[in-house]
Automatic annotation (TrEMBL):
Tetramer of two alpha and two beta subunits. It comes from the Bacteria. Its main location: cytoplasm. Its EC number is 6.1.1.14. Keywords: Aminoacyl-tRNA synthetase, ATP-binding, Cytoplasm, Ligase, Nucleotide-binding, Protein biosynthesis. This is Glycine--tRNA ligase beta subunit. Coiled coil: none annotated. InterPro entries: DALR_anticod-bd, Gly-tRNA-synth_bsu, Gly-tRNA-synth_heterodimer. It is found in: Cytoplasm. Belongs to the class-II aminoacyl-tRNA synthetase family. One of its GO terms (molecular function) is glycine-tRNA ligase activity.
Length: 721
């Protein structure tokens, strides 16, 4: 079966777009082929800075013939009906139709239509121009003289050539001809733009990849990453160092080169006084270089690793020298930021009101920055006020939360008023991803307590499912207050996540609250916390008066379900313990854990079956309007099974309530498990719908006791099985 090779070669494609674009090309073309009735054995995409490549193996040479039967009118139908049938079926004469008989409907015409298959080349030639013209680049551009015409090609960077060859391994391949804006598909590509710019004629993928390799192009992006990583580790090791690995940077750098050459540069050791985080981000952001450190060290070395796209004749000396000059210039700027942030601001007299508001000490640099943040009225959100107003709200909320977390209230307050101060530092202005980290460093430099400095850095955490969650009570308190204020605020202005859109990362904030509570074993009732946050918000913004607590709690329930399911909990068990006003997340998680253990036990499964039967019978009778006694009357019992069940329910529910009061959910489940045998015996021996109305009502009330007893732990009717 034939193979298909596609290459779209252009000027440099931005590294961040390459992987997705290659995947888009594969999906668009394979979807088009399948829709046209073709099948293939396998397809793989490749990408470099200058090309998107697709290798499709075992493609059908042509689509299969399609046979269709089209039913027509009865044989005794009028002439117009028959003419319409012939036109629709593409028949020239009724003699070309077949007559089918039906015992009920009589004889009628049927057209047997055969649509012959089409060669794969035709369908590829039709599909590719449309795919290229409508390719989903985020920001395509037009180029060249032809771009002035309406409808001209738009590509991420100027498209230069197209390769499209087709053929089996046992036959010579041929070019599938098509053209897009004057670019005609061929079997010619080009290698590395500096080392091998000459034309290369290719046949099929193996030949293509081999010739590109000789022309200094490593086609496979994953292989380029492996080469860069291995060479970078080796170069670092040879110099007595270890590479500080960075997967995101590795992905980006592999998309900048077709023939990776790893080199080592250096800068003056004096720059190592700058925090390692600043050095790393400076070198990474501006020069796309990796940093190194002594094995096991926390701080960096003055050696960095760069990846060139050129195999230089001088061994890379000029390339290293040029990169080193830029790195030194950037580090000089970073050192300037670092020192400026530790100095006094020039306009301290204008900051006294803000300093008084937040109990700040204007002799300290970080305090000055917080006062400046407030005095400048830096906006957090147009409808939620300034950063200073937000800090005031977080301060009030954190003071209440500290009573729950047990954190030192003075340390919490100090951490809150300094938590956002580094937003006014020059280091964070240059590198926003360092917010919190720089606040931690500046706080220690001005003599703050370690717990305060840690809370400044950690109050943004956990920033995603894999991020570390803080455990120190001060940091936990500030982190909870920050996230809850954010959630309550955006709910109050009706800026909630919708579908896949979540511009303010509110899902992440809710997950952060959930992890802080569950991983820190914090007993925080969310509804009172929402109310405290709302009071602080309404004091500043009285117009935000809507009650959002129930809706926000429902949002937390949804996020909790996702979190617990990711940990392996069953969705039906989570639903069974959740009620609309459940706001103690730790309690919910413990109930789910106990319920999971309970229903995996045989007695638990049997009790579940019996309880669901009782609940279903009771619900059906209630729906019909059957009388159910208000209370169980032991005097109406006629059978021993009724008496035994009543005694067991009374005893079991009492034990379960006591266990739940102590938050011992496993013991509560064990108490309910004792109902298994009496419930089974009851349904074996007792007819609930007795002819005597009083007995029937009493027995239904007994079923109600079963529902109530198990309902203290969970709604068994929501559990599957």
């Amino acid at each position: 079966m034939p193979d298909l090779l596609i290459e779209l070669r252009s000027e440099e494609i931005p590294a961040r777009l390459q992987r997705k674009a290659a995947g888009d090309l594969k999906k668009l073309l394979t979807d088009a082929l399948v829709e046209a009735g073709l099948t293939y054995e396998g397809a793989r995409e490749y990408w470099t800075p200058r090309r998107l490549t697709l290798d499709i193996r075992g493609l059908n040479a042509r689509s299969a013939d399609v046979r269709e039967e089209r039913k027509g009118p009865r044989t005794d139908a009028n002439e117009k009906a028959i003419e319409g049938f012939l036109r629709g079926a593409g028949l020239s004469s009724i003699s070309e139709a077949h007559v089918h008989s039906d015992p009920k409907k009589g004889d009628f015409y049927v057209a047997h239509i055969v649509k012959p298959g089409r060669p794969a080349e035709e369908m590829i030639a039709e599909a590719m121009p449309d795919i290229i013209r409508n390719f989903p680049w985020p920001k395509p551009m037009r180029s060249g003289v032809a771009s002035a015409k309406p409808g001209s090609l738009r590509w991420v960077r100027p498209l230069q050539s197209i390769v499209c060859t087709f053929g089996s391994e046992t036959e010579e391949t041929h070019v599938i001809p098509f053209e897009v804006d004057g670019i005609v598909a061929s079997n010619v590509t080009y290698g590395h733009r500096f080392h091998a710019p000459e034309a290369i004629t290719v046949r099929r993928f193996a030949d293509y990849a081999e010739k590109l390799e000789k022309a200094k192009v490593v086609l496979d992006g994953e292989r380029r990453k492996e080469m860069i990583l291995a060479d970078a580790r080796n170069v670092a090791f040879a110099n007595g160092l270890e590479l500080v690995e960075d997967e995101g940077l590795l992905e980006e750098v592999s998309g900048l080169v077709e023939w990776p050459q790893v080199l080592m540069g250096s800068f003056e050791e004096a720059y190592l006084e700058i925090p390692s985080e600043i050095i790393r981000l400076t070198i990474k952001t501006n020069q796309k270089c990796f940093v190194t450190r002594a094995p096991g060290a926390d701080t960096l070395s003055n050696k960095f690793i760069l990846v060139s796209n050129i195999e230089a004749k001088d061994g890379g000396k000029e390339i290293v020298h040029g990169n080193g000059k830029v790195v030194r210039a950037r580090l000089s700027d970073a050192a300037h930021f670092w020192h400026r942030d530790q100095g006094n601001l020039p306009d301290l007299e204008t900051l006294e009101a803000s300093a008084k508001k937040f109990d700040l000490d204007l002799k300290k640099p970080l305090d000055q920055r917080m006062a400046k943040l407030d005095a400048l009225k830096v906006t957090f959100h147009a409808k939620l006020g300034t950063e200073g107003e937000r800090v005031a709200r977080i301060r009030a909320l954190a003071a209440e939360l500290a009573k729950v977390t047990g954190a030192d209230t003075k340390l919490v307050d100090r951490a809150v008023v300094l938590a956002k101060a580094d937003l006014r530092t020059e280091a964070v202005g240059e590198f926003p991803e360092l917010q919190g980290i720089m606040g931690h460093k500046y706080a220690l430099l001005q003599g703050e307590q370690p717990a305060v400095a840690d809370a400044i850095e950690d109050h943004y955490k956990p920033n995603g499912p894999s991020d570390r969650a803080p455990t120190d009570p001060v940091a936990v308190t500030v982190a909870l207050a920050d996230k809850l204020d954010k959630l309550v605020g955006f709910w109050a202005i009706d800026e909630k996540p919708t579908g896949s859109k979540d511009p303010y990362a509110l899902r992440r904030a809710a997950l952060g609250v959930i992890r802080l509570i569950l991983e820190g074993k914090a007993r925080l009732a969310l509804l009172p916390a929402f109310e405290t946050a709302l009071v602080a918000l309404r004091a500043q913004k009285p117009e935000l008066s809507a009650d959002i607590s129930a809706d926000l709690l429902s949002f937390f329930h949804d996020r909790l379900k996702v979190y617990l399911r990711d940990l392996g909990a069953r969705h039906d068990l989570i639903d069974a313990v959740l009620t609309p006003d459940s706001d103690d997340l730790l309690m919910i998680a413990r109930r789910v854990e106990a319920l999971t253990a309970f229903i995996t036990d045989e007695e638990g499964r049997n009790l579940l079956a019996g309880t669901k039967r009782a609940t279903q019978i009771l619900a059906a009778e209630e729906k019909k309007g059957t009388t159910v006694a208000d209370a169980v009357d032991a005097g109406l019992f006629r059978l021993d099974a009724e008496k035994a069940l009543h005694q067991a329910v009374e005893a079991g529910s009492g034990e379960a309530r006591e266990a739940i009061a102590k938050e011992d959910f496993r013991s509560a489940m064990e108490a309910l498990a004792k109902l298994r045998q009496p419930v089974d015996q009851f349904f074996n021996d007792v007819l609930v719908n007795d002819d005597d109305a009083a007995i029937r009502a009493n027995r239904l009330a007994l079923l109600g006791l079963i529902r109530s007893a198990t309902g203290t732990v969970a709604d068994f009717s929501k559990i599957a099985g």
